[in-house]
Amino acid sequence: MTALLSPDELEARLRDIGATRYHNLHPFHRRLHSGQCTLGEVQAWALNRYVYQACIPIKDASLIARCDDPALRREWRRRLADHDGTGQAGPGEADGGVARWLKLTDGLGLDREAVISQRYALPATRYAAQAYVQFVRERTLLEAVASSLTELFSPQIIGERVAGMLANYSYVTKETLAYFDKRPPQAKQDSDYALDYCKRHARTAEQQHAVMEALHFKCDVLWTMLDALEHAYGEEGHIPPRAFRPGQFPALPRND
Ligand SMILES: O=C(O)c1cc(C(=O)O)c2c(n1)C(=O)C(=O)c1cc(C(=O)O)[nH]c1-2
């Protein structure tokens, strides 16, 4: 166990974890952003990433449910609204991030119902997303907050992704990628709060260690999802039996 760090030293250690472990460094993202993915791979990325998007409000709701600090609950409620919408768009009209992600999968020609069913996602994607929800349910509140700290690094990758995909794929438009318009300011606000919370509440060396481990864990969740995509759809092409197959979607057996 390392010695007790100052809050700023803790922040520097967390930023260092992002600099060396965040999913912007994954080969699949490099291929995605530089135009080297096939249409099938771009579709597979969006379909699998829906599973992650859908789990985010569930893990945020779990955090709220076990939190006895009204200020933290209030802050986290905003995240729920960001993802699930406020309901102000009209009855049955979702206006949050999850709904905007479906505009992205629509734009890539994927069947909405099939995407929402999560049936054609890779098993590893589902397990990774479930592991994130489980982590937030079971670990300390401090670790649960710390596991969101990957968002410190997301504005940069979103910038690279939007510029790279618009430049490199003729079928990707600004409208297709509209999900990402709102994310950088939301992620900045979310991660500023979470970082400040961790710096204030990690008062012992053990708690600081737990915060850093939570960020490592979350980087692993994100990395695992991209490993699974690369393994299934990259050069080797080991698509699991039930998963999305480019070109054959959604004409797949429905009762499997
Ligand atoms: O596009 C990305 O690379 C990326 C990364 C992350 C992240 O680092 O966890 C999130 C998002 N996007 C995102 O859109 C999002 O809503 C989100 C919520 C969270 C979280 O842990 O609460 N991370 C992320």
TrEMBL record:
BP terms from Gene Ontology: pyrroloquinoline quinone biosynthetic process
Coiled coil spans: none
UniProt pathway annotation: Cofactor biosynthesis; pyrroloquinoline quinone biosynthesis
Leader sequence segment: none
Gene Ontology MF: a single term: pyrroloquinoline-quinone synthase activity
Residue ranges annotated for the Thiaminase-2/PQQC domain, each copy included: 12-227
Catalytic activities: 6-(2-amino-2-carboxyethyl)-7,8-dioxo-1,2,3,4,7,8-hexahydroquinoline-2,4-dicarboxylate + 3 O2 = pyrroloquinoline quinone + 2 H2O2 + 2 H2O + H(+)
This enzyme's EC code(s): 1.3.3.11
Top-level taxonomic group: Bacteria
InterPro entries noted in UniProt: Haem_Oase-like_multi-hlx, PqqC, PqqC-like, Thiaminase-2/PQQC
Swiss-Prot/TrEMBL keywords: Oxidoreductase, PQQ biosynthesis
Entry's family note: Belongs to the PqqC family.
NCBIfam families documented for this protein: PQQ_syn_pqqC
PANTHER family per UniProt: 4-AMINOBENZOATE SYNTHASE, PQQC-LIKE PROTEIN
Biological role stated in the UniProt entry: Ring cyclization and eight-electron oxidation of 3a-(2-amino-2-carboxyethyl)-4,5-dioxo-4,5,6,7,8,9-hexahydroquinoline-7,9-dicarboxylic-acid to PQQ.
Descriptive protein name: Pyrroloquinoline-quinone synthase
Species per Swiss-Prot/TrEMBL record: Acidisphaera rubrifaciens HS-AP3
